[in-house]
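**User:** I keep going back and forth on a fold encoding question. It is easy to fool oneself when nobody else works the same problem. Could you pick a protein and write out its sequence and tokenised fold? Could you put it straight underneath, so I can go through it closely?

**Assistant:**
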Amino acid sequence: MKTQTRELVTIAGIFVGIPFAALLLLKGDHELWWEPLAMASLAAGMLFTALAVLSMFGIPKSPEDTAQEDEEEDDDEARPRWKHVRLWQLCAGLGIPFLLYADAVTGDTGNFNRMSDSLAFWPGIAALGYLAARIVWRALVAFFGGEEEELQPTTHGSARFATDKEIKKAGLLANAGVYLGQYPNLSNDGLWFDGDGHLITVAASGAGKGVCSVIPNLLTWEGSVICNDPKGENAAVTAKRRREMGQEVHVLNPWGLHAGPPWDLPCSAFNPLDWLDINSDDVGDDAAMMANALVLRDKGTSGVEGHFADEAESLLTGLILYVAFMEEPDRRNLLTVRELITQAPEDWTDLLRKMSKLVQADGLIARAANRFLSKSDREGPAVLSTAQRHTNFLDSNRMRLVLGSSDFDLADLKRKPMTIYLCLPFEHVSGQFARWLRLMITLSLTALSRTKGPSRPGVLFLLDEFAALGHLRMAERGMAEGRAYGVKMWPILQDLNQLKDNYRDGWQTFIGNARIIQFFGTADLFTAKYASDMLGKTTVWASGSSGDRESTSEAGRPLMTPDEVMNMGPDEELLFFRGGLRPIKAQKLPYFLSSLKDHADPNPMAEEHFNQAGS
């Protein structure tokens, strides 16, 4: 007979015996016609109790069975286990029979004073006392909320999801900070993270990253924000709300996304060279950092191509410094850099000779020019061509709208509540215009690292389509050091392969610097396996049978297999926390299905507005 069957039979026997036993204890000294039935019930209860006790330690097997077991199975896994019998089941199986036995040997039914003289009385009372206490405890837990933690085997792993108690203790119900998702077990207000540290979201295209994560936080986050907005959707839905929250809002919108009613998105501008301080000792490093942001290296760039990219950075650094130090104020912008680098060959040579004699910027301008002039007739044009290719986007009239002047100071992100939307049409995000995004994010992170101001609530960097930015040196620095100067990075990816491609051997360090990682809508095996491995392994009971013999053993299995991760429901998400809290299996909720819809403007990506969206 299988162990599960024996347990059920034991419990059934108890429920049959209890009413008879109760009447037997209360019947007094009168003979009752059904006493033989009660004694039969007692005998059955004792039999079932014996079976339960035997199942704890294993029913002895014949030598033939043992030999067959040695041949077919590993001894350790075939050894019968006793842990599957719960203590409350044992107490229920022993308590009533012990009391009935004490009642029978005293010969004075229902006389508890005399029954207490029997050795069987007190074990029976203890067993039923424990059973009653457990019933009361479960009732209190059910009534007042919470949950009773039950010890589980951990031989093969102790992975599990966070309990309600742990989630409460972690402060995730504070309704402040970054919105993470829903957890209906505890609150309809959702899960929130109000601590320091960065986040990463990994979700496939169309999984709801915008409506479930980005927009809800733009509608609620009280600190400053810089948001990469590929479709202009985030600005259209949340810009008005951000202004109502007391934020100074700037929308850098070179393509005029959703510029018409009902959104009327404006177009602000920012000139990176206005940020460059020619009186600072860091001016050379800052110019080099700007050049690095402009040179977008393709995946796998190395060797000769890598050399040309490095030399193009050096040349652009010198030109940026030249424009910052030598040009008139109205020409101090990247558009002038592009003009100089694409002039006629004879004019280009004259410019280099002029630069080679300058002492400004501690001679950095002259050294950049001399470095180029020393190149061979074959290498020089290749370097120039590389620099021109990486600045092609500056020829766009759209870029001229947002690079010619400045409507704000990036340092104000820390000094006062400010929101900046970087709106770039989706079709340009992965193209040459990604350099503009790289430049804006690089300068923003650098400005914040040098600006004094409150570290809480901090500046939130919502970086949708993060992979399109390529390998961004300042993003790595922001993930590693940004917490110290009040920056909360939030890169959003479609899968982990994107991060691996851009950051090579450092991609796991990138993840390791995140305080919270969010997975949902996983569609590729690599990401699913990574999430499964992060969840870890748990220990479960596994049952098997051979002939008429059944055995139960501990076995290990992933808390969720990669297949289970990929097949999560459309409203489910996984949240991982660095710092001691177990993973949480939560739910995601689009903003338009929550109370946040009352604070949002119409979504231009919704079907009824799509023709007006412009993208």
